[in-house]
Structures are given as C-alpha cells and as structure tokens.
Design goal:
Elements (H helix, E strand, L loop, with lengths): L1 H24 L13 E5 L7 E5 L4 E6 L4 E2 L2 E2 L1 E9 L2 E8 L10 E7 L8 E7 L4 E6 L7 E4 L7 E7 L2 E7 L6 E5 L7 E9 L7 E11 L14 E8 L5 E7 L4 E5 L5 E6 L2 E6 L4 E4 L13 E2 L5 E6 L9 E6 L6 E2 L6 E6 L5 E8 L2 E8 L6 E2 L7 E6 L6 E5 L6 E5 L7 E2 L6 E7 L5 E7 L12 E9 L6 E8 L15 E8 L1
Length: 506
C-alpha cells in the first residue's frame, strides 16, 4: 500500500508540474473575434494580459500589451490575428500614442507559423524611437534577423506575402512607399497574420492605435482578367485626414462609384447593371435602365443631378460601347452616339455637352457631343491613348490623361481642344483626373511604373493622389489594392471633403 501511495503521489506531482509548465508556455486564453480578426491573445510568457478592441463606427483598432521583446529566439507581445493561407497583403496606418516608457516599444504587422514564443515569423515593426524594419525568424528557435528601412517613424505600414518572399512597404502618410523584398521563406501555406504591440518592458503595458486596416487576398497567379473577379469594398475617404471607411462590400466586382449631387448616395455598376446605393438605408437597389443592361464603368451624373450618362455595349455588337442618357431615377435610355466604341467621362456644367473617349480610325481620342445627340466634335488628335475627359466645375477646362509623351500623364485643355497643358510628369502611370466641386483640386489614380502606360488593369498596388488643379506636387491620400474600376468616374462628395472609390480583395 505504501508503495502504491508513493507511486500515485509521484504521478500527481508529475502531472501538476506538466500543467504548470504548459500554463507558462501556451498563449493566454483568446478573446472573442475583434473586427476582421478571429482572435486576440498574448504570445509568450507575458506578465500582463493585453487587450484588443474594435470601434465599428470609426473602423479603428486599439491594441494594448506587455512583453519583454520580440528578438533573439523568443517573442513576448499581444497579437490580434487571423489564419490566412497563400498570398496576402496586410495594410494599415498606425501609431504609438504618448511618450511611452521604453524607446524600443514597437507595433505593426506580423505573420507567424505558430503562436508559441519561438515560432518562425516575419513582422513589419515600427519602434517608439522611429526605427523601422522587417524582422524575421526563418526557422523556429533561430535568432531574429532584420532589414532596416530608411524611413523613420512611418505611419503607413504594409506587409505582403508573395510566394516565398515577404515585402515590407512603409511611408509617412502623403509620401510614396519605400519597399524591400526578403526572399526564401520556407513557410507553410497557412499562417497566423495580424496586428501586434510589444512594450519592450515585461512590467509595462503599452498601446498602439490603427486605422485603414485591410487584409487583402490577391487573385491567383493564373487568373484571367475580365473573366475572374475579386470581391469589392466601396470606401469613402476623407481627403485631408486620409481616414477611410468601408460602407459596402460584396463578393463580386463593384466599380466606379459616382457621388449623387444631393449627397444622398452613390451610383455604381456591377455585372452590367447600374446600382443606386442609399446612405440612409445602407442598401443597393438596381436602377432601371430598360434595355441598356451591359453597362461598363464609364458613367457620369449631370451637374444638376437630373440625368445619368451611360456607356454600354447593349447596341450593335460591332460598335462595342455606345453612350446613352437616362433620368437619374431610371427609365428608358436615349442613345447619343451613332458609332463606337465610345466611353463617357464628362458632362459640361451647363448640361449642354458630353465628353468622351472614342476609337475612330484606329486611334483613341477625345470627343464631345451635344447632350441631346448630334454631330460629334474631335478635341484631340495625338498618337496613342487620350482618355478620362472631365469638365471642371467652371466649364473652363477639360481634364484628361494622355500617353502622348510616352508615359500616362495628366493634362488639361480648353473645351474647344486648344491650349493643352501637361500637369504631371513623374514615374507613375496617372489616370482619371477628377476635379473637386470648388475646382481647386484633382484626385487621380496612379499605377506603379512597371504597368504599361496605356493599360489600366484590375488588381494592382495603386495610389490615390491629390494635387492642385493647376498643377503642383501630388500627395498620396490612399494606399490600396485596386485599379480598373477603382475611381474611373467623378466621385467627389458635394462638400468636397470626401471621395468614394473601390478597393479589392478575394
């Protein structure tokens, strides 16, 4: 009996010891889902429990957490994460409020193979003293390595997985990204990915704040453009603060939101139909356009808000896209252009003219036509693509983009086509200038330099940029994944404080 008691006692002690060790090494009990993240937890033997909160009204996150460090062979921090498989792009703006205790407190994005303290991982880390780096442990239990960024204390942070590589992209809001690639990660397909904060002091809890948080899943490498589509977010952007809000999401392709002049909602296209999205109800409703059902993303609302211009391939097949007009509330459209392809982009402030891009005699130029129909008038005659013509609110200018100098740049001209003036000249491919209601600013889409000048494809890293209407240095106001359909049409709010656009993710 005594031997039995001793044996049982030893087993109990062994079990208690194992449980105590497990409590020290297994992450803290997870919270419930937080915003777009499935869980939030402490990783490593943190002394103080952290937290993660999401404000649905502002679509912002706050993480608090302790942790001695994320370095060498073990990590201690607080983590809001989601399980992701394959390629992904993690985007946010973030900051550390207050002075903090340790200058090496840090926050950012992280992707890990597991939730144990020494798991293989990669993170985009911004420190309290401004140091910014991509830090990584390619094998479990190995020491962390890093590549430092020349950008100090950026607030725009992006971490992308692309095959066996990870890319860090950082910027101070308003500036383009600085980007570095780190290759040769032998990670499994599925990773834990999300936001983190580490106090760099085991006894201290620090906070980090985040907005514009997006998890983007890009298309598969073998996807076919114009056949395979990603899901869509319609977003509203404050052009001064850069704060973005998703107002509507769908698993299919939504494109080119127009802001109604009365401020009540948006018009956009999807799968050939035109939708009216009402801000009050938060719901989209199909707009009746009768027989004109194969609508593309070149549609424009008249300045007085009474009429909608459409571009559609519902006519003779050999013409492709033709231009129609319809009352803003829907009805039977009236055909305006006799031939095609013709793509509408602008309505004159007095309501008398429509301006559009059209292919005639093998080249794409800009034309205008009476809004009631009639003879078209050619406004440009340069080799290559001229596109995106839009009237200024004063009616004194037509803004457009042109490849005539070899890259896609922004231009403006008088309504009769005279006095063309180049507005941009940089490494980006710049498309679709949209003029603010007061005529002082233009917002436009910029593709990266590697995109062909005369191409505006879906599903790329792009910027929305803003500059003075008469020319000047552009400022980045949104860092996003999109392209074709993002902002093809006029999309300023009536008060000139916001623009609507589409971003994409699978």
């Amino acid at each position: 009996m005594e031997a039995f008691i001793k044996s049982t006692a030893m087993k109990l002690i062994s079990t208690l010891t194992f449980c105590a060790f497990s409590l020290m090494t297994i992450p803290a009990i997870s919270q419930k889902p937080v915003g777009i993240f499935d869980n939030a937890t402490g990783v490593g033997p943190v002394l103080h429990e952290g937290s993660a909160t999401y404000d649905a009204a502002s679509q912002t996150y706050e993480l608090s957490g302790a942790g001695a460090n994320i370095w060498f062979t073990k990590d201690e921090f607080h983590f809001a994460y989601k399980k992701l498989s394959g390629d992904f792009i993690l985007q946010t703006r973030g900051r550390l409020p207050g002075e903090g205790v340790d200058p090496h407190r840090k926050f950012g994005w992280m992707a890990r193979t597991g939730l144990d303290t020494s798991a293989a991982m990669v993170c985009a880390a911004v420190h309290g003293d401004g140091l910014t780096a991509i830090q990584f442990r390619k094998r479990a239990g190995a020491n962390i390595e890093e590549v430092k960024s020349p950008v100090k204390m950026p607030d725009v942070i992006q971490l992308e997985r692309r095959g066996r590589s990870f890319f860090l992209s950082v910027a101070s809001f308003g500036e383009p990204f600085w980007t570095v690639e780190v290759p040769d990660f032998d990670f499994p397909a599925a990773l834990y990915a999300g936001l983190f904060v580490c106090s760099h002091n085991a006894g201290v809890v620090e906070k980090a704040e985040f907005d514009n948080v997006r998890i983007v899943v890009p298309p598969k490498p073998d996807y076919t453009p114009y056949r395979d589509y990603l899901g869509s977010h319609i977003e509203v952007l404050d052009v001064v603060s850069g704060r973005r809000q998703v107002i509507h999401s769908a698993p299919n392709s939504l494109q080119a939101p127009n802001w109604l002049p009365d401020g009540s909602g948006l018009i956009y296209n999807s799968e050939g139909l035109i939708y009216h999205f009402d801000f009050a109800s938060g719901k989209p409703v199909v707009l009746n356009t009768d027989f004109v059902k194969q609508n593309n993303n070149d549609h424009v609302i008249s300045f007085d808000g009474k009429m909608l211009g459409l571009s559609s391939s519902s006519g003779e097949q050999e013409y492709g896209s033709l231009i129609y007009t319809v009352p803003i509330g829907g009805g039977k459209p009236k055909r305006i252009t006799a031939t095609g392809p013709s793509y509408l982009h602008g309505w004159s402030p007095d309501g008398q003219w429509l301006t559009y891009t059209a292919q005639r005699n093998g080249d794409y130029d800009i034309y205008k036509i009476p809004a009631e129909g009639g003879e078209e008038i050619q406004l440009t005659n340069s080799p290559g693509l001229d596109d995106g013509p839009e009237y200024s609110p004063s009616g004194q200018w037509i803004y457009f983009n042109s490849v005539r100098t070899g890259s896609m740049e922004l231009w403006r001209m008088r309504p009769d086509g005279n006095w063309p003036e180049q507005l941009t000249d940089d490494e980006y491919q710049n498309w679709f200038p949209h003029v603010s209601p007061d005529g002082k600013w233009i917002v436009f889409l910029s593709y990266m330099p590697e995109v062909k000048p005369d191409d505006h494809p879906f599903y790329k890293h792009v910027y929305l940029r803003m500059m003075p209407a008469g020319g000047g240095k552009p400022k980045v106001i949104a860092y996003l994944y999109g392209g074709q359909g993002t902002i093809n049409t006029p999309s300023w709010s009536p008060d000139g404080k916001r623009v609507a656009f589409v971003s994409n993710s699978n």
